[in-house]
């Protein structure tokens, strides 16, 4: 049985880690390189770095951050934010990232998923999907959740798998930062529609929420930010609780 993964997420803005609620009201959460090193030492299975204000000019800045992180950690890490070309991915992987996450660029140019999977392999291509419920439908949003599309979550998830994505990082915008639990019903449905791993994101507030998303949401990994950044949940304590609930986890 594949073990479940715990993944701290570091949202990066202007070189600092930040955290908000429902994608707004950001506050500082520390230096990303220092946090990465602490998480790697404290039992995280992987890390995700998202440059939430990325623009083309910042790509070089992000690659420098990736190099600094790669020197400090011995676990896989994924980098996303403003990635829109084969060249962007090449730079980040060469700088030390293990995977890249694409979101808005994949929606605007779905063929990009095919190109990246063909060149670098599906195993390092994560497609991030930010969605919220509108009139009972899960609708995909772009640009850090600011721009709604007419694309439905479940249709898009099936398409990105067919195009070669190796993983899906699904963030429920309705749950993000609320600490009320993950979107387990949507996660469970995603799990029945695709055969690639699903990373749950948005809503972690306590250890039970992680237990629930692995059991009820059938998630393959759970990603969280503030509960780790502000030391509300200790990763090893969390893993012990998961183990106590018969969830396969690396300790």
List the helices and strands and how they pair.
Elements (H helix, E strand, L loop, with lengths): L4 E9 L2 E6 L2 E7 L1 H10 L5 E5 L7 H14 L4 E4 L5 H10 L3 E4 L1 H5 L2 H10 L4 E10 L2 E6 L4 E6 H11 L3 E6 L11 H10 L4 E4 L5 H9 L5 E4 L1 H4 L5 H10 L7
Helix pairs in contact: 1-2, 2-3
Descriptive notes:
The protein has 251 residues and is an alpha/beta fold. The protein has one domain: Aldolase class I (TIM Barrel, Alpha-Beta Barrel), CATH 3.20.20. 37% of the residues lie in helices and 28% in strands. The protein has 10 helices and 12 strands. The chain has helices spanning 32-41, 59-72, 86-95, 104-108, 111-120, 153-163, 184-193, 207-215, 226-229, 235-244; strands at 5-13, 16-21, 24-30, 47-51, 77-80, 99-102, 125-134, 137-142, 147-152, 167-172, 198-201, 221-224. The protein has an 8-stranded parallel barrel, surrounded by 7 helices. Strand 10, helix 7 (184-193) and strand 11 (198-201) form a beta-alpha-beta unit. Helix 1 (32-41) packs parallel to helix 2 (59-72). The two termini are 15 Å apart.
List keywords for this structure.
alpha/beta, 251 residues, 28% strand, eight-stranded parallel barrel, globular, TIM Barrel
């Amino acid at each position: 049985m594949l073990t479940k993964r715990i993944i701290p997420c570091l949202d990066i803005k202007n070189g600092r880690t930040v955290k908000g609620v429902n994608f707004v009201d950001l506050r500082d959460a520390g230096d990303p390189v220092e946090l990465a090193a602490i998480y790697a030492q404290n039992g995280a299975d992987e890390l995700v770095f998202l440059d939430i204000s990325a623009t083309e000019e910042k790509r070089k800045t992000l690659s420098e951050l990736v190099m600094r992180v790669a020197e400090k950690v011995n676990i896989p890490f994924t980098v996303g934010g403003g990635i829109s070309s084969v060249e962007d991915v090449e730079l980040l992987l060469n700088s030390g990232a293990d995977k890249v996450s694409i979101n808005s660029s994949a929606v605007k140019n779905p063929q990009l998923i095919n190109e990246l999977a063909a060149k670098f392999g599906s195993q390092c291509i994560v497609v991030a999907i930010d969605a919220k419920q509108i009139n009972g439908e899960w609708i995909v949003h772009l640009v850090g959740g600011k721009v709604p599309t007419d694309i439905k979550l479940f249709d898009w998830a099936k398409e990105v798998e067919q195009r070669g994505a190796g993983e899906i990082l699904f963030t429920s915008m309705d749950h993000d930062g609320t600490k009320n639990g993950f979107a387990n019903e949507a996660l469970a449905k995603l799990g029945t529609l695709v055969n690639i791993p699903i990373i749950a994101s948005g809503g972690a507030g306590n250890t039970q929420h992680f237990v629930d998303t692995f059991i009820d949401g059938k998630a393959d990994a759970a990603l969280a930010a503030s509960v780790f950044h502000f030391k509300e949940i200790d990763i090893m304590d969390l893993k012990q609780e998961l183990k106590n609930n018969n969830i396969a986890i690396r300790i």
